[in-house]
Every structure is written in C-alpha cells, then in structure tokens.
Design goal:
The protein is an alpha/beta fold and 207 residues long. It folds into 2 domains: 48 residues, Orthogonal Bundle (Helicase, Ruva Protein, domain 3), CATH 1.10.8; 135 residues, 3-Layer(aba) Sandwich (Dna Topoisomerase Vi A Subunit, Chain: A, domain 2), CATH 3.40.1360.10. Helix content is 41%, strand content 12%. The protein has a 5-stranded mixed sheet. It has a two-stranded antiparallel ribbon with strand order 1-2. Helix 7 links the parallel strand 5 and strand 6. One of its GO terms (molecular function) is DNA binding.
C-alpha cells in the first residue's frame, strides 16, 4: 500500500504507547512535509533521550547529565521521611505539578496484572523495601510510604501486595484519598484533584 520506508516508519511508531497504525501513518505524512534540517532536529532530540539522560539510582526517575541521582533525590530541602510510590515517571511529574508534595519518590515500573501472575517480579519492590530498611539506620528514616497508584484493578492489586510486603518495615502505609474516580489515570488528572487526593490520603491497615 505504501513504499517500504513509510511502512517501516508505521511499524516502528505504531509500537509506541497510545500510537496505533493510523496515528503513525499520519505522523509519517506530516514529517514528509518537513525539511531535512527539521527532520534532523527531531532525530537529535530522540537520540538525546538515550545519550543525555540517566535513570536515578535511588528512585528510578530520570536524571540529566552524569548525576547518579535525580534533582529531587539530590534536593536537601525534600522531606526524607516520606516516599511516594508511583507506577511510572509521568505519575511523578503529575504529582510534582500539584506543588503539595515535598517528599521523595519511588517508581515501581508498572503494576501487577491478573493476566501475568509473575508480573510482580518485574516491579522494583525489593529496591523499595531495601531503601526503607536502609533509611532506618540513618539520621532521617522513612516513616511513611504513600501508595499513589491509579484506582484501577491493577493498581488496587499492587497496593495490597505492597502493603503486605512493606508491613515488615513498620512504616505507615497510606493510599490516595478522595478525588480520583475509579479507573482514572493520575497522569491525566488535574492538579487540584490530585492535590486533594494527596491531602486526604488514608492509612492502609491489614486485617
């Protein structure tokens, strides 16, 4: 239907989140109208994502340059006693936009899926547990872990799993309160709603 270069472009970009074959084909024809210089700019920006960014060794957020940790983890003004546990990087950015959270973060890298019984093994739960336990030997130990996970079946399942695992650390475990409707994605929530959910978080207690 299309020449090979366009077909290959569509195949590559259709594999990206929220982009299907139709959107990828539109992108292809849009880019065909751009100059070689503009296309090179796009290519440079994409390459920079890999070349100029690192994954934070502490919370797994993105960090620029050669820093081992991200700006948030390196900020001495952040509250070291509270860790906000999120599914992905964009959730961290969404919470930061509210301006209401001044603690640290921990990115799990996903949630538990009913369709994949072993999916919990792919999450950074062990790193979170060890991070909390290590902090308890330091001057400012972690006292609270906020499970800021989406109110979806996967998010609920992951929160229950984390609660059981983190119970052994003795920290207070809370979850976002009112504001986010069931099935919502924090990434698309407005700042006021997400801020209210943070402020009204409730403690989780295993029966």
């Amino acid at each position: 239907m299309y020449p090979n270069p366009i077909q290959e472009f569509i195949a590559r970009f259709a594999s990206l989140p929220s982009i299907g074959p139709r959107q990828a084909s539109r992108l292809a024809f849009h880019l065909l109208k751009k100059s070689t210089g503009e296309l090179q700019d796009y290519a440079n920006v994409i390459l920079a994502l890999h070349q100029d960014l690192n994954v934070c060794a502490e919370c797994f957020y993105v960090s620029g340059g050669k820093d081992k940790n991200c700006e948030i983890c390196n900020d001495p003004e952040r509250d070291q006693s509270v860790i906000c546990v999120v599914e992905k990087e964009t959730d961290t950015a969404a919470i930061e936009k509210t301006g209401r959270f001044k603690g640290l973060y921990h990115i799990l890298g996903g949630t538990i899926s009913k369709l994949e019984p072993e999916s919990y093994k792919k999450l950074r739960v062990k790193e979170l547990f060890e991070r909390i336990k290590t902090s308890q030997k330091e001057k400012t130990p972690v006292k609270e872990a906020i499970l800021a996970l989406n109110p979806t079946p996967e998010g609920d399942m992951t929160a229950l799993y984390l609660e059981r695992v983190l119970k052994a650390t003795g920290v207070k475990i809370t979850r976002l309160g009112r504001g986010l409707p069931s099935g919502a994605d924090m990434e698309f929530a407005d700042e006021e709603t997400l801020g209210e959910a943070l402020d009204s978080r409730k403690e989780m207690k295993t029966k």
